[in-house]
């Protein structure tokens, strides 16, 4: 370590000078970045104004209820359509039109009905049939139709009734044909492969299948979503139990680190290697067991996208891919441990020191709960505002037709359409509800309100994160710069640090958060452009977009790193954001070897801790939900996809472990910066003693001189 201590480059500033009055976070400080604080408050007031405006204009019912051709909500309480919750398509075959994919609207009349048709019946047969048939058919015609007086050609010409009814079932509040398959894969509708359309043409059931799929563009995705929802209803209590276990394991791990940091780190390293090794072994056993099984040699590419994800586990290539990925991860971890074995000892000492700091500031373990709560409020406000903004448009009607018409897709008014020039020139044209939009000043600036909502979401979320970082770093800095630990540690360091951050440094936190938010919003815009250009053939544009995405990803990571260290300096010295960021950057650059090796090694070890907790909980949840533990096989719920609760538990376990370890990570980063300052400020003499622990002094081959006694 002595070799690391080279003379610092003057271009990164001079080393810290000894200050006999410096005893940790400065208490006599003033407000910083006041202009940015005012800007943040004004932006928040504007955010509240946008929310109030959106709530007054928006209507979330548009998300919940389907709308008919006039834009009325089917099944909405307190309206004439309250008892008609389902949407019926006059001609489902028209939903096979490419227009559906472009405008998400079938070019056919849509009607709210109380129930879906349960029989095959044409308009002609209904007119010639019994009174019961006529009454039954009339409920699927437009309101106010004189069904008895008008002839079938007149009813069809004016678009008042559908040409036929076919057996249907309600799916996502829409009447879709009751499709089925016979042996051999023959598609049927109500046990019939073909049937009369009511217009003298026979319809194939397979054509209806295609139209049904396109009538709801996301029908397959919704089927998967429904199955996943069913799995959650069956397993939610077991998922909660798994998350509680993850929380208990994380807490036990943190407590053990407090007393057995060195042993726990080595145990953690060995267990991570063993857990990944077992994963490799399990994947190999599954791979070997599928040898010779029918269909097991099919490739993932040939299989394509399947809604039943369990199918992928029945082919050998899936397990081979898992095995290769885990083997690469295992190899990289072992390689890093071999090359960094000497630095791991110093990193363990730093983690031990962090364990002592957390032990003396136990309230820091509960601070993430405040961060999670504030982030939940920010996310909820953003989501609610986004829903109200997206549903605050008015009904827009357009001309839909089958033949050539110059007015096609023009805006129209359904009240005057039948008497307008359009209906005269285009007899088969209809004025149907297309989407929600508007021509008012509010609607013209709606996209700006949406953008403002997204931008303020990032700004507020980053501000909450920054507040947590400053609060924790201020508390842990108070621990480090206490010469006699724990006697010199101030009372309630977390509350004192939080008070200083809010009282003096709201502007600095807002400034740092603003810079990060701008970069994140640019990344969101680039992702949006990338999504829009997926079908483009311009290779150069795709290449440039990919380069920009990569550059801004790197920039975001750099800004997060600089912000984190700037917040530590703000917590200690109480300066503005820019001077704090400069001081932190120069301090790190003067000690670049230690930063590149020691700090990253501790991050790697803490990441292994999170990986271990996730691995333990994930393996147990896999064996439980897949029914492989015989003792509790009957208790395991019956699921469509057993990976749904497993992935939920794994992701939840990682977030919980990250919440606990984020305190440790902030503690390590704070102690590391304080440690670098300690080396620059002091030399171990009686007048300038080091503040670091005895373990760190021993590892660095340094010592504090004992004060001379006077006889």
Automatic annotation (TrEMBL):
The keyword Glycoprotein applies. The lineage of its organism: Eukaryota, Metazoa, Chordata, Craniata, Vertebrata. It is a multi-pass membrane protein. One of its GO terms (cellular component) is mitochondrial outer membrane. It is found in: Cell membrane; Mitochondrion outer membrane. Belongs to the CTL (choline transporter-like) family. This is Choline transporter-like protein. It comes from the Eukaryota. Keywords: Antiport, Cell membrane, Glycoprotein, Membrane, Mitochondrion, Mitochondrion outer membrane, Phosphoprotein, Transmembrane, Transmembrane helix, Transport. Its main location: membrane. InterPro entries: Choline_transptr-like. GO terms for molecular function: antiporter activity.
């Amino acid at each position: 370590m002595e070799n690391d201590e080279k003379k610092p480059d003057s271009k990164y500033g001079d080393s810290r000078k000894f200050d006999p009055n410096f005893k940790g976070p400065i208490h006599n400080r003033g407000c910083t970045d006041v202009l940015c604080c005012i800007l943040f408050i004004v932006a928040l007031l504007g955010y509240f104004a946008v929310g109030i405006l959106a709530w007054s204009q928006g209507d979330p019912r548009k998300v919940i209820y389907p709308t008919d051709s006039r834009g009325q909500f089917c099944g909405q309480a307190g309206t004439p359509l309250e008892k008609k919750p389902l949407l019926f398509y006059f001609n489902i075959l028209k939903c096979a039109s490419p227009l559906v994919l472009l405008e998400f609207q079938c070019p056919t009349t849509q009607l709210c009905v109380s129930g879906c048709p349960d029989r095959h019946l044409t308009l002609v047969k209904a007119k010639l049939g019994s009174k019961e048939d006529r009454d039954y058919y009339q409920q699927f015609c437009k309101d106010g139709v004189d069904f008895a007086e008008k002839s079938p050609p007149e009813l069809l010409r004016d678009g008042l009734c559908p040409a036929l009814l076919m057996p249907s079932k309600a799916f996502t509040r829409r009447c879709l044909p009751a499709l089925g398959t016979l042996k051999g894969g023959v598609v049927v509708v109500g046990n019939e492969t073909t049937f009369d359309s009511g217009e003298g043409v026979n319809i194939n059931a397979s054509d209806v299948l295609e139209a049904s799929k396109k009538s709801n563009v996301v029908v397959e995705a919704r089927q998967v979503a429904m199955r996943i929802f069913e799995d959650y209803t069956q397993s939610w209590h077991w998922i909660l139990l798994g998350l509680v276990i993850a929380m208990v394991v994380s807490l036990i791990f943190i407590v053990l680190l407090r007393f057995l940091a060195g042993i726990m780190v080595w145990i953690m390293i060995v267990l991570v290697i063993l857990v990944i090794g077992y994963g490799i072994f399990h994947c190999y056993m599954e791979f070997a067991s599928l040898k010779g099984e029918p269909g097991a040699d099919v490739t993932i590419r040939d299989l394509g996208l399947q809604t039943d994800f369990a199918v992928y586990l029945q082919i050998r290539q899936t397990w081979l891919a898992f095995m290769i990925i885990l083997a690469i991860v295992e190899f990289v971890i072992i390689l890093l441990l071999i090359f960094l074995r000497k630095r791991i000892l110093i990193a363990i000492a730093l983690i031990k020191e962090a364990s002592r700091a957390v032990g003396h500031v136990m309230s820091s373990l509960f601070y993430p709960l405040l961060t999670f709560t504030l982030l939940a409020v920010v996310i909820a406000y953003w989501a609610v505002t986004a829903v109200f903004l997206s549903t605050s448009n008015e009904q827009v009607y357009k001309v839909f037709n089958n033949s050539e018409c110059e007015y096609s897709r023009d805006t129209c008014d359904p009240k005057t359409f039948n008497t307008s020039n359009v209906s005269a020139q285009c007899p088969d044209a209809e004025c149907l509800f297309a989407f929600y939009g508007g021509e008012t000043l509010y609607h013209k600036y709606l996209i700006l309100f949406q953008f403002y909502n997204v931008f303020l979401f990032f700004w507020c979320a980053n501000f909450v994160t920054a507040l947590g970082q400053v609060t924790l770093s201020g508390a842990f800095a108070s621990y480090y710069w206490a010469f006699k630990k724990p006697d010199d540690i101030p009372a309630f360091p977390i509350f004192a640090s939080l008070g200083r951050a809010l009282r003096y440094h709201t502007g600095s936190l807002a400034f740092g958060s603003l810079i990060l938010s701008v970069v994140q919003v640019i990344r969101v815009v680039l992702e949006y452009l990338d999504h829009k250009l997926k079908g483009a053939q311009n290779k150069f544009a795709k290449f440039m977009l990919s380069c920009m995405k990569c550059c801004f990803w790197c920039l975001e990571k750099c800004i997060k790193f600089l912000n984190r260290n700037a917040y530590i300096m703000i917590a200690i010295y109480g300066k503005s954001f820019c001077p704090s960021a400069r001081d932190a950057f120069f301090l790190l650059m003067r000690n670049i070897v230690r930063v590149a090796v020691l700090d990253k090694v501790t991050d790697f070890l803490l990441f292994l801790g999170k990986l271990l907790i996730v691995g333990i909980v994930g393996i147990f949840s896999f064996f439980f939900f897949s029914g492989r533990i015989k003792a509790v096989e009957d208790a395991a719920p019956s699921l469509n996809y057993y990976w749904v609760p497993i992935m939920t538990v794994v992701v939840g376990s990682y977030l919980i472990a990250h919440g606990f370890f984020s305190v440790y990570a902030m503690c390590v980063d704070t102690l590391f910066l304080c440690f670098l300052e300690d080396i620059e400020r002091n030399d171990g003499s009686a007048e300038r003693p080091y503040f670091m622990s005895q373990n760190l002094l021993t590892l660095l081959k340094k010592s504090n001189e004992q004060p001379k006694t006077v006889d």
